[in-house]
Design goal:
Elements lengths: L1 H22 L7 E3 L1 E5 L2 E3 L7 E7 L9 E8 L3 E2 L2 E4 L8 E7 H15 L10 E11 L4 E11 L11
Parallel strand pairs: 1-10, 3-10
Antiparallel strand pairs: 2-4, 4-8, 5-6, 5-9, 7-8, 9-10
Length: 163
Amino acid sequence: MKRDTILPIGSLILLLVLVGGLALQPVVGQTIAVGVGYDPARLDLHEPDPTYINATLDFPRSTNASNVNASTILLEGTIPAEITLSYAIAKFPYMYYAVFDGTAVVNIIWVKLYHMGVVDPSVHKPFKVYLTITGKLNDGTEFSGTGYIAVKIYTSTPPPPPP
């Protein structure tokens, strides 16, 4: 009789250990996808570099932008935001605004164009250069978003030095 009860009890204990072990596994963090728009949306690389490049981050409606940890915001993983703020308008609590150094952003754009193999610029057709912004919320949740800037280059524009 004991033998008939030991097997089911042993199986139950094994099942509890397996299920309990799975419940204690760390939860893999999710990354929130955000929409990104840049201002200026078009750059003429024949003109002087802009002082600033502004980025508007559009979070999902369930995320309040005031929870963004401003010190974690990076453009292309290298350029920190110089100025950040969440819109103080109650109607748009999911919008966030970040300002980046214009010269640093243009240097990143040149590197991307160089790696895209842009060798024959066209005056009439701008190139879309995609730039990604990453960061974290105060609770550690990561966010990421990609937008583009339309870039015009001319044959007289000096190419960037190779990276």
